[in-house]
Amino acid sequence: MQDNATEVTAAGIARLAGVGRAAVSNWRRRHADFPKPVGGTETSPSFALAEVEAWLRKQGKLAEVPLRERVWQQLAGHPEGPLTALVHTGCVLLLIHERPTVWLDASAGSDARLAAMLPGALEKVLTPRVGGVRGRGGAGVGGARAGVGAGVGAGAGGVAGAGGGVNAAYGRPAVSGAFGQAGVNGPSNPRAVNTGSASPGVNSGSVASSVNSGAASPGVKSGSVASGVNSSPAVPGVDPDPTALGVNPAPTVPAVNSSPTASTVNTPPTVHNDPAVHNPASVGGDSAAHNASTAHSRPTVHSTPPGTSATAITAGSPPTPALTPPTGPQLLPSAPLLRGAAELAAEIGARQTFEFLLGRHLDANPRQYTLTPAELAGLMADLAGPARTVLDPACGTGALLRAVDPRPGQELYAQDNAPELAALSALRLALHSRATVRAAVGDTLRADAHPGLLADAVLCHPPFNERNWGHDELAYDPRWEYGFPARTESELAWVQHALARLTDGGTAVLLMPPAAASRRSGRRIRADLLRRGALRAVVALPVGAAPPYNIPLHLWVLRRPDRTPAAPEVLLVDTGRFAGEARGGPDWEAVREAVLDAWRAFAREGRLTERPGLARSVPVIELLDDDVDLAPARHLPPAAVADGAEQLTQVRERLGETLRLTADLTPPPADPAPPARWPLTTVGELARGGALVMRTGGNGGHARVPVLTDHDVLAGTAPSGTLPESEEEAVLTEPGDVVVPVLGGGAMARVIDGATGGAALGRNLVLLRPDRTALDPWFLAGFLRGTANNRQASSYASTATRLDVRRLHLPRLPLEEQLRYGARFRALDEFERALRHASRLGEQLVRGMYDGLTDGTVAPD
Fold it and tell me: Is 0.70 surpassed by the pTM of this model?
């Protein structure tokens, strides 16, 4: 019955059956027994997956749903949405990864038994692997047996006792608490922060009257005595009292932070009852408007995960742990999905299964997330160097922390304002390494989950151009050691937050917009970062390195100074020369080699021998002018004159050779002939008859496989794309294949040669693999490029033209005649390539001449 809750759209049915969406529409019209819609809208209905599978098998249109596709459709059509389904699946995959025998025992019975046994089993796995928020409520997830996710400011011992306050265990003086005190997120004024042994201010403020109370908030480990603490008469709690279902029964639990005479929790005491400066709720702050993962992975709508009260992530309350084990009733609709995911994990592994599903979801919703490319994440982790404790305060989907080299005893700290992203990051990191993961939900700048952490490294892809980052609420925050950021300088607030969370000598690497290096509103903070030796390097990345792809982003490398250098210098690197063509992306190998080589040499010597046009170390005094402009391009010398002139000469010689070759390849005059009347066939008929195999581009694959994109086919360039990393089997090209783009309306087909063979097929491409004994590849590609042929096979949407490759025509000719046509088509292809090459060389020569004449390296006569 539960499987019927999983819904699938017409596009999903088309993928299951390997047909186009038009075929699904025809089935609905022609077959009265086609399953009726169970959801969606009139224009985009959804159907029960089980009913669709049964109908397809009955019609002989589906022998068996591929396991990967079945699991993905169950996840995408989950009644609570794909994000909730991903969290449930990730929890179970971690259980399978850590304790496979427990999963085998739980899954042996019915779905109801599985859902009843899983919460207790998941808690035992999540507590040691995905630890709670230190300083926020004891060990594990919300404290030992105090309730997973219930420890919002209190753990096993209620109010933290000796050494239980925030910042008590990190080695730096407490910001919001001290040894022997229980202050959590009190006022940030250092003169009045939880002073005195009698100050019990836990989340004190005029608005804190209860914790997660309300009829809509599921109780967490609720007991008969707990009055007003996570109470919920309408929703069954996690680990409820012994009268409920017998699922992980717990004895009566005393109220957390409650007293015999008061039914409320965290009642404002007589001390610190003024609105806290560091408490946005007390001054009208709105953390929901600020997303700590904007630049990393921000969904359009932020939902609260099951078992987490919405009040737990408001601006006025401390951040909550990222993961709370779902309850039995919440897991019951996911039971078929969990069983399918376990079956897939048995084939490819638990980690690979989660990466496949997460990558498929991110790829299916490209406009909802702004991701950090894996190559950039690896570069940032390498710049930070090996570290035992690493923090990402805007973690998104965890790409940066996932790129960190594992070490024994490693701890990974993460925070994100989106609950679902924080949970997915925690699961992804726990599956990826053996490190202890401490992930939390909350607005990092307004409600830091790790206020006393001293990390060895901080990696961050912060939100750009945020104006509602807490400027008014955080005016007296002690993190602004280098100056109070202007409202328009949110990025400099993240820079100082990262420095505040570093141990002395620790390294932070942040992805920054280029404007942060030169805006006048931030010049005083930039100057102080330089004077005190905190800013060590600024690296200008090529255009297209990360979203937004149209500007060259910067990397800032910072170190918390343990001492000020005697003669401080700053490393400036510009890798703009390694930008790729159009959408191909940069040459990451060249970028990585250039940046790491310059940084490591600078880190050893404290200075770098000048590398014209690429890198140099600049004395701080040279940068401390009225602008304090740190843009590398403005301080790097141009390439050596001799090299520039010599390069222009080489380009001119290559252009001359190419033009001579182009002249030789020019087709001879065409002889007139009457229109031919050949018998015609279609690509679809040839595929059904076995004369060729037809494949479409995939949605994922191995990260290191080069990908042939539709732009590469249209531009005639080498494979330049990437696919989301997953264990999905990519479609690999072979020499002799014919690749056709399906979008854009242009008449184009490309025959794969030996240099391109082996690349993965990208999206919006169709691959045709002809049987060489019946069909010549060049003959096939040539006739597919006919303008009239493409026009009759194209369909038009409101904003795009799509080609139905199956409808393309070509004549029925014997193989000998095909080879004659194929030789002529091949000659035309060589001529076209030569023209393109000559065009690129010509543009390069013209640009070089303009640059040489304007910078004085080329004489006008």
Answer: no
